[in-house]
Structure formats: C-alpha cells, structure tokens
Amino acid sequence: MKQRLVYVAAAGIVSPLGWGLDETEEALCADRTAIAPLDIFSPLQGQPLPAGQVKDLDSSPVPPRAHRLAREAARMALHGQPEPPDAIVLGCTTGGIFTTEEQLRNKEHSPDGYRSHGLLSLVEDIANLCHCTGPALTVSTACSSGAVAIALALNLLRTGQARRVLAGGVDSLSRLTYYGFHSLQLVDRNGCRPLDAGRQGLAVAEGAAMLLLTTEQIEQPLACLLGAGLSCDAYHPTAPHPEGKGARAAMQAAIEDAGLAPEDIDYINLHGTGTPDNDLAEARAIASLFASPPPLSSVKGAIGHSLAAAGAIEAVVSCLAISRGLIPGTVGCRQPDPAFAFTPEMTCVQRPVRTVLSNSFGFGGNNGSLVFGNLAHQHPPLPSSREAWLAIHGSACLTGIGLLHETFARLQEGGSAGGRFPDADLAQRLPARLIRRIKRLARIALLLAGEARSNAEGQDGPDTVFMGTGWGALSETWDFLQGLESSGEQFPSPTDFVGSVHNSPAGQVAMLLKATGANVTCSGGDYSFEQAFLAAQTLLPETGQSAMLLGVDEAHAEFTPLLDWSIGTGDLADGGGGLYVNRDREQAKCLARLAYYGRGGGDDLPDRLFAALGGAEYFHRHSVVLFAGVPAAMQAESGPQLERLQHLIGHSLPVCRYRDFVGEFASASAIAAVLASQCIETGRVPGTLVGGADVMLGPESRVLVLGTGQCLTAMEFFRP
Amino acid sequence: MNELIEELKTKLIELLNLSSLTPEQFDAKAQLVGGELGIDSIDVLEMVVMVDRDYGVLINSQEVGEKVFASVASLAAYIESNRAGGAT
Questions:
Q1: Residue A283: pLDDT band with limits 50, 70, 90
Q2: Residues A286-299: what's their mean pLDDT?
Q3: Do domains A6-377 and A390-590 have the same CATH topology?
Q4: Which Pfam families does this entry report, sorted A to Z (chain B) (predicted)?
Q5: For chain A, which residues make up each domain, given as ranges?
Q6: pLDDT at A379
C-alpha cells in the first residue's frame, strides 16, 4: 500500500477573532487582539479576567455552547460538499460542561439535564448533522487535543480506513477552565503576552475549528497535511519538561513524518501560551532542533488559549499562512524575552509560505506537532503496510471483586463480579507517594497499567499509551466544582483541576512506565475503549513500539447517576481493563483488531458489520462466540441490532451479555476484551458466561466483543 | 509560634495527603518544596489556597512563595507576621 497524500479540502473556524476564514485572515493581518474581560458569566469575586470569547453566539443553554461552536465550524468546513465524511475526529476537553455547571448550581437532579455533558454527545451531534455513518471519534488530551485529533485523522486516511475525514477541535469557556487556570496562577491579568520578557500567563478562550481532510486529489486544496508527530514528556502532570524534551521529540517526529528536514520549514506556529514555563521550554526545544529557526510566532495573544480548539484553530491559521501567504504576528508581545535564541515575528507579514510546523502541548506532558505544506512540497509517497491487528502480550482487569484472577474465578463459578472495588483496597495496592494527589480514576488506571505491564513477561516497557474513558475523572471534576461553589468561587483546588482533565490518568501511566511516545485519550461514552483501540490500531507503528491500551471508568456516587443513563436505580460499578500490545506475533497470547465501528442508528448497521467481517463465509469458516455489550439504556436499539445480526449469521451462536457479569459502566468493554483474550489464550469460554456448556476454542475460533446501541462496534480476538 | 507549626503540620499532612507521615515525624525545619516528600509546584498552589482561606494571608508572587514555603517553620513565621492581628 502506498502512503497517500492528504489534502485540506476545506476548513471552518469560529474563534474570538471572528467567524470563517476571511474574518480570521483580516484580523490576523490587522494584528488585532480579541482578548477582553470575560462576560459570559459574572465572577463573584473581583474583576473579570481577560479571556477570549466568541462573539455573537446564541447563549441559550441547550445545546451547550461547545456544541454550538462545533456545529458552526462543521457547517463551514462541509459547505457545498456533496457527500458526508467517512469519519469524524474531534478534540475536546470539557464537552457540555458550561451547561452542566448551570444544572449543578440549579440542583437539577434528573439525568435529562445532563444529556449533552459527555464528549460523545458532541461528536455524535456533528455526525448526525452531516449524516456520517463511520466512526465519530473523540480525542481528549488537554491542550493538544485538536492537534492530536488531526494526527489521528491523518493516519486514518493514510492507512486507507477512510477517504474523507472531518477533524478538528472545540472547547467553550466554562467556570471549570476559567477558575482552574486561575487557581494555577497561570492567567495574565494584563492580557496574554506570548514570548514577552514580562509574560505572566495565558488568557483562557474558546472556539472551534475543523478541517475536511481527503486523500482524493483535488485541484485547489487550502494546503496539504504532510505529517504529524506525537510525544509525551512523562515528566510532570502540568509543567513541561524544562528543556522541552517532549516538545522537541514531537516536532522532530512531525518533520520526519512529512519527509522533510528542519531547514525545510518556512514558519513555526508556536504553542506560545504566554506562561513563563511553556514559552521557555518551547524556545529551548526549538533552539535544540533548528540550527537557525525560521520565522515564528504565537497567535495566542490575539485569540487566547482555546484549549482543545487551539491545535485545530492553529491548523487553520497554518493553512491560511500557506494559501494566502502570511505569517501572523505575536500580538501582545512588546519586549521579546532575551533568554530566547530567536526573535518572534511581532507583526503580520505578507509573504509566500510553503511549509508550516504547528505546535500544541498540553497537561500530562502531551505534545502534538503538525506539518502543513503547499502542493509543491508533496513528498514522494512512502510505503505503508500497517497491519490492522494488535498482538496482546499482557493483560489485566479490575472489577468490583478484584483483578483478573479473582474476576475469572468468580465468573467460572457463575457469580457476578460487578461493583465498585473498595477505595481502601485500591489504595493498598499502590505506593502511597504515587497516588498522593490523584483520585479514583487515575488510581485504577495506574493499577491496571502496572499489572498488565508485569503480565507481559519479557517485553520492554510500553512506548505509548492509549486510554478510553466514558466520563473521565469524575471525582476531581465534582470536587473542583463543589469547592468552587461552596467557597463563593474563592478557593477551588488546583490539584483537582489538574486531575480533572480526561488525559490525567494516561499522563500518570506515562510517568510510571516512562512511556514517551504518543499518549492518546478518547472519551466516547460506552464506546470509549473501542475508540482508544481504533486509535492504537491506527497510530502504533509496524515495528519497534508497544502500547499500553486501557479502558477505565470510575463510578461516582453523585455524578455517575446524572451522566450514565444505564445506571438507573441499579448498583454502581466501575473498573476497567488494560492490554499490553504491539505488532509482534512471536509469543503473543492473542491477536486482536477493531473490525468495525459504525454509528448513526440506521437499520442497516448490522448488515454493514456483517459485511465488514467477511459475510456468511466468515461465520462458516470460524466458530464464533459473541461477547455482547448491551448498555441498559440502549436495550431498544441493541435488541433489534443483535436480532438482525443473528438473522444474517443464520445459525445461533453462544452469546455472553458481559454487562450482566461486570456491571453497567462505560468502559465495561475493556474488561470484556481482557476476558476474550484470556479465553483465547486458555482455549475455552466458561459455560457460565454463555449459559451452557464450556465452549472449546480452536485455532479458527473467534471471540467477537460487540458494542451495541448508539454505535455498533466489533473487536475481534483470535489465536496468533 | 510552636502551636502554629504543629497546627500547620497536621493541616499539610491532610491537605497534601502525606499519609505515610505523622506530625511527630514532620521536621519543621526540613526542606518542604523539592525535598524528600515530593512536594512541588502544584502542592505550593494548594498551600497558597489554604493559607489564604484559613489565615487570610495572600502569597501571590513566586519569589515570595519560594521563601515562604522553604519549610514549615518559615511558613509559620510568614503567617504569624502577616495575618491580621498577628505579631508585627
């Protein structure tokens, strides 16, 4: 398979600077700043801090502000397009949080008020808007989310899994992020001054931007997406590595991925947040990679820091630089820091630009760099023969009753393992110092990662981390918002804010295992683990790297019943699964691939899943056991899906409804995946799981872990 | 002053979840930030919030912070000399 060139066919952008490409270009050329005192809500204490707020946005709470921003950007990017994209990848950190905050303050006790909280609601909303029936994926890696989403989209296209992908990022302003960055003393009261000697921090902002990426050759693309590089500092939850080690690795990987050398880059769009530490670390990384850096600048003094949207907004800025020939100025910077080995562009310059490197870095030491170029800079296609399957070398799971051993034993006895593993027992299994500042979700993730790592005997530590979580760190998010409200907005906890980001657990895992490669967290409700699986399958290189693949959720007594419709009045359950994977078949315990991910509620979803697996022939050739994920709230959709699938298969298969055994929670499918792998390895599915005799598994047997309901997914497990 | 030091030890053990430490083992003169306890910039911010909330004393510059959080003893001394009605 040849590596395909990826074109930016169209783009949409809604930022504090304006709506659409033309307004954005005009504001950039005028060196205008949109940063002004916050006015979408009134702080109880003190004067409103400077922020980047989108103007003229309808302010009613439903759908949430983030959804509105995303809709506008998607409409622009898809305007005039004859067919929907094959897939969508959206970076987002806080979803519908601004509306959730209002509901919590109003003591809204019905889950109805929280339907649009999760990140899945956001990407599904966009997928419905444009009638996309392929994967609609989320990436939540803090302030690098937008860039990481675009990197994932690039590799979906290169590996031929999609021909057209809508990719970008979105975040709205919220109390969580406004007070969160304030509690970290990272907000500059004088507005944002990137790279300035006197810089004192960022300005929290909002926005959305999307690129329509395609491998179909088009005459006049905005630009080409030439390469992407991802890395993790594995150093500290918030502070960048002081020498910018991870930043350098991401930039270098992106430039190499584009088939270029540092001297081929015409312009660097800096992450340049305006915090003292970020700008210094980034400057050092650039000085170590570029013998003589090209023109560079940061647009965050003009726009503010729009968090997950930033990487996507700056991807659009990069495309404008190339298509319209401009290098934006560093608005806000008056006195460039003499500590840097370069001087940034101070004002916008009109000149031809052939290639742009755009940086985005985030909490958890999460780094993403993108390289864009004009058509003249398309590099010779590189061979890419990436296999779809992942080789499983180690696994671990945690249920209400314990780890894999206890869980499997309980299931074999015909019992249930659902529940909430006690906090005290969880803490006992981890070093006190390691978990001092983290709460339940990150603790579960660390336990699983450590167990799966030691279960992968003879393998090196993993290089990369992929994690799915349906709802993220609920304890930290809840505690932060409660602390904010109970103290009259004076004393929210900075530690809780840091821990509240969805990728905090994956960042902790990276520090524990020294995993400095890609670090991707997906948050797709009941399909979060499947999304992380697809990301791992797409991004893990053919050789030389291994990954820790996790699916984790925590049950929170107050928050979970508001968010997860499947809980109802039932018992809370949580936990997750971890798989140590790479591409090496030798001594692998099991092979696995995500065979299908579809969405959209169409009646033909089961037919498409059936065809993707290979149709009737597949089910003749293999004896198949189904592990069916049927979320309680999705019975009405799931039932007909499973019936249709059984009808297509034509004969009855052993079926395990795994949520009956491990409980109702978003990433229950990660436990199902670990159990499937365990069954393949031992050659037997316990009869207690499928309501009959033990099923013996031969070399041709397959275990399919299905996700049903809003989306329909299939993970396939088989012997090496 | 000693009373305040003891009070701070108990508060910090709870605030920073230093569960392996008892107040008796907590050396008031030992390096607090960047020392053996693994206390770093995030913990400093958490302590800034606590000092403001519980003692009404603001610490809003990194330079002041570095001196104040050098040890439990220096933190106690700073609170003592800056809180309303405290020693001058």
A1: very high
A2: 98
A3: yes
A4: PP-binding (PF00550)
A5: 6-377, 390-590, 604-718
A6: 60
Catalytic residue among A271, A377, A393, A502: A271
A495 vs B19, B20, B46: nearest CB: B46
Task: Name the DSSP letter for residue A675.
Answer: H
Phi, psi (degrees; rounded to nearest 5) at B9: -60, -50
Rg (CA), chain A: 24
* DSSP secondary structure letter of residue A709: S
Q: Say how far residue A222 (Cα) sits from the centre of its chain.
A: 25
- Cβ separation of B42 and A237 shorter than 8 Å? yes
State the Rg of chain B over Cα. 12
pLDDT band at residue B87 under the 50/70/90 scheme: very low
Query: Can you name the CATH fold of A604-718?
Result: Peroxisomal Thiolase; Chain A, domain 1 (3.40.47)
Cβ atoms of A143 and A92 within 8 Å: the answer is no
- The hierarchical CATH code for the domain B2-82 is 1.10.1200.10
pLDDT at A683 over 50: yes
| Nearest residue, CB atoms, B49 vs list A236, A437, A491 | A491
Q: How far apart are CA B35 and CA B31, in angstroms?
A: 5
* Phi and psi based region of residue A460 (left: phi greater than 0; alpha: psi -120 to 50; beta: remaining): beta
pLDDT at A138 over 70: yes
Choice among A241, A305, A393, A622 that is catalytic: A305
Strand, coil or helix: A229: strand
pLDDT band per the 50, 70, 90 thresholds, residue B63: confident
* Whether pTM exceeds 0.95: yes
> Hey, is A556 helix, strand or coil?
coil
Asked if A246 and A367 touch (Cβ cutoff 8 Å), the reply is yes
For residue A166, what are the CA distances in angstroms to A7, A253, A356, A373, A388? 12, 23, 20, 19, 22
Burial tier of A420 (Cβ tally within 10 Å: 0-12, 13-18, 19+): buried
The CATH class given to the A6-377 domain equals alpha beta
Cβ proximity of A333 and A194 under 8 Å: yes
In sequence order, the 6+-apart residues with CB closer than 8 A to the CB of B40 are A236, A239, B33, B34
Q: What's the confidence (pLDDT) of residue B65? A: 85
> What's CA A328's distance to the chain center, in Å?
28
- The interface predicted TM-score (ipTM) is 0.92
pLDDT band, residue A1 (cuts 50/70/90)? very low
Beta sheet of A575-582, edge-to-edge order: A519-522, A464-468, A547-553, A575-582, A390-398, A590-599, A711-718, A702-707, A624-629, A655-657
| Cβ(A710)–Cβ(A645) below 8 Å | no
CATH number of A390-590: 3.40.47.10
Please give the residue of chain A at the shortest CA–CA distance from B14.
A436
- CA distance, residue B14 to nearest chain A CA (Å): 10
Give strand pairing partners of A14.
A19, A208
**Which residue is listed with tokens 């031929």?**
A160
pLDDT over threshold 90, residue A377: no
Which tens digits make up the pLDDT trace of A302-349? 999 999 999 999 999 999 999 999 999 999 999 999 999 999 999 999
Strands A355-362 and A575-582 turn out to be: unpaired
Closest among A418, A415, A401 to A571, alpha carbons compared? A418
Beta bridge partners of A464: A547
- State the DSSP H helix or E strand holding residue A227, giving kind and residue range, or none if neither: strand A223-232
Q: How big, in percent rounded to 5, are the helix, strand and coil portions of chain B?
A: 55, 0, 45
Where does the pLDDT of residue A382 fall: very low under 50, low under 70, confident under 90, or very high at 90 and above?
low
Q: What is the mean pLDDT of chain A?
A: 96
| Residue in chain B lying closest to A185 (CA) | B45
Element of type H or E holding A532: helix A528-539
Looking at residue B88, what is its pLDDT?
45
Nearest CA-CA distance, residue A42 and chain B, Å: 21
